[in-house]
Amino acid sequence: MSFLRFENIRKSFGSFRAVDDVSLAIGKGRVFSLLGPSGSGKTTLLRMVAGFEQPDHGRIFLDGEDITDLPPERRKVNTVFQHYALFPHLSVRENIGFGLKMAGHGKAQIRTEVERMLQVVDLATHADKRISQISGGQKQRVALARALVNRPQVLLLDEPLAALDLKLRQHLLAELHKIHDEVGITFLYVTHDQSEALSISDEIAVMNHGRVQQIGSPQEIYEKPENSFVAAFIGDTNFLSGTVTATAADHATVQLDDTHVITITADVPLKAGSEVHLSLRPEKIRLCPVDEPPPAAHQHFSAIVEEIYYHGAFTRCRLSSGARRWLVDLPHQHASTLMPALAKGSAVRLHWHAADAFLLHSYHADDESIEDQLDELPHTTAP
Amino acid sequence: MKRQELRASLPSLLWLIVFVALPTLMIFGIAFKPANSQGGIAPGWSLAAVKSLADPHVPLILWRTAWISLATTALCLVLALPVAWTIARASRAWKSWLLLLVVVPFWTNFLIRIFAWKQILHAEGLLARTLKQLHLIAPDATLLYQPLTVVVVSVYSFLPFAILPLYAAAEKFDFSLLEAARDLGASRLRALYQIFLPGIRQGLITAAIVVFIPMLGSFVIPDLIGGTDSEMIGNKIAQRNFSDRNLPQAAALSAALTLIVLIPLVLKRRAETSPAPPTIR
Known about the structure:
heterodimer; A: alpha+beta; Rossmann fold; CATH 2.40.50.100; 2 domains; 10 helices; 34% strand; B: mainly alpha; MetI-like fold; 13 helices; globular
């Protein structure tokens, strides 16, 4: 049962098409993320729910009611803004109580509700401080409390953690998760950070160029990307493109190039001669010494180690076999057992299970260099 | 460090003492001196000038000065606010043009601009004739020489001084706060006076003082545009000084005006040191 629903939403700013025919249905009490690079239309969608932007076309429904034309103050949604937008002339307490005051609640009630919220976000000792006197993480919690205290039907979070440093971001993400479990309010969470989206969401819509690329659970998005954009944007991947040479019941043989022929499992019927594109996550690939046989049903090639990057929990390797390059992430344990053989310039055998290379429904060559493209986009940074 | 600070501020401190503090004290002193027949000060001390403030005329003029100044200040703020808002929200290219338009009147001499108003408001002027033909005012009505005329022309003269500090404050205002207020259930109007006005509080106070204080001492505009019933305290001081040649009485009026000016300054200070520091970030 959808609680918040977008129907064929379109929105342009001048000649820039920010949102291009988006339809989404979000269930009650869920954490739903809009994930995409800047300029993908995710924030525009969120601002339409808040009432700050009007769609050029399409309707938005909240709990069965068409809210498309309601002004922001008449919508039962509240926003946690990216840069918090806390009122500098009011104290922490007054900021949190602002919405209740606007709704016309009595002084006593506002006091109890604000007090309760201060407990939830653990800011009771800072209640009478000014906004300029508290830290970034505390500001973020005030912003959250100021929105939640009104018991909105949907809480809109616009890159709520983007202005914070990594450690604090992880801490507050866990806190957000906990608060969501406590209050049970529907969250619409906008972010460009895939790890944030994967860890907090029940469901994710990956967006690019104003369009929804894929909707699914974090597992589906990561394990079964439908297209090359999703595969490249969520985590890192190896793209394998080739021609089907032979097909069987549930698998097919694919010729990648003159020296690389692999077997893949396919959930859709494939025709011999057709072109296919696969995504193979770097952590699905394993390495072993060249003279050792790989496990059964594993695809394997011998390759030369080009670069080794130590990441602590895992080790990232770049390898090459002929003209082909491979990105491999090895868990710490696996990397250390290989250690004498794993050295720059040494030959190893890389292998993966046939089922781990995932067939993409659509593919754009541009997506292979997605990091470079994202780097060119204007970044939104904290002031 | 302390000594360095003192050395650095010494020139301005000397300037303030010699050209502001001492003359002000002298004015307060002269108010307690007797006048002589040549328009100077006689030796000895006298309360005659201070007592002349009890003239029933004086409170009337003080009252008129106060209300004309207050009305001008209020109108300036009301008119300057939307202008400051618009300029602050304009694109960068537009901003500089709009600011230029605000400042352009300064390129014309103040007196010439006042005389231009005399032409506009003259009984045979375009405005008066048009209004009469449209039967919007009585055939014998005059637009010039009234307290309200003084207010209108003063608003015209002081408006840029109100716009600039309000613009400076609005420029620094984070307009996303208004979205946050709307998001939390405030209507457009409520967001305006609960979030925007407190947000530009410093600018409002500065604009009010920049208009109100010169208005209290204003005498050119009422002299040229106002009639006998729009005389302000500045005119009275000028008259005591130049026509009556009674320096102590002029000094007594000036001293009274200075005290009136000090009141809003003290209020501003108190507002600044109140537990609600108006620092806008």
